[in-house]
């Protein structure tokens, strides 16, 4: 999708009633899903192993990273329940907040940090304007960097997964997670074709950040847009990544998860998420390396920032390799 179409979409979006937005997206995704069956939910090209790959730490077969984008005040208020659910199963995750869209509680951030969770930034607003111009991005980057410093955070994910990795060196981050291996249903649909992290090098020697693509389909796509009745697609993709030794990176939204017996029109039962975590533990016990995003980013930056690959993936302004190192 061209930048002009993306900009037009976000210009018109506030004028379209939310139920109509969902209806239109369902129609578009249903048609596109048929034509993308060879690259979604699994694109076999994404399984390419990094050059001289020694494997994950502790001889684990694959990595598991859990993340949450908190897009509304309603999602913010559900974070503690999601935190407790994960803790009861022995998991930890990152929560990415949108600080200029709703009030982010310092107490919530403290509780998350004290219990071993991570705090990240999901932009400032959720309006799709970040990459409309370099001037807009630079202005927002200054505020984002202030929040990163105040929150002692090192990770970023752009709203709606829009990205220009060659611009993101302005952010004082250790990792970005605004891309995906394959997801043709996103506004910027070109995937980076790998289930491994990437190093995105900057202008100065040694400068750069780690790119962590999400590799499981997003919950909103599966359960709200596609109206999938269960987690078979999640399980299928998880098993495939495990078989190929990659990184399972999951992005879910507490905004759309309901913890009661019945949820709203844009919500799905928490049992889907719970079932996936229980499936992971039951089928792949002791096989996966489960860490926070910042930990896998530091592992990658410390060991694999030297990779060089000349080929560029489509849709990223020539800035990102679809293997394992990027120079922009």
Q: What can you see in these coordinates?
A:
This protein has helices spanning 3-12, 18-35, 73-77, 79-88, 106-114, 134-150, 219-225, 232-243, 270-284, 293-304, and strands at residues 62-70, 94-97, 118-121, 155-156, 175-176, 198-201, 208-211, 247-252, 257-258, 268-269, 288-290, 325-327. The strands form three sheets. Strands 1, 2, 3, 8 and 11 form a five-stranded parallel sheet that branches. Strands 4-5-7-6-12 form a five-stranded mixed sheet, with helices on one face. Strands 9-10 form a two-stranded parallel sheet. It has one domain (62-327): Alpha-Beta Barrel (TIM Barrel). The protein has 328 residues and is of the alpha/beta class. Helix content is 35%, strand content 14%. Strand 6 (198-201) and strand 7 (208-211) form a beta hairpin.
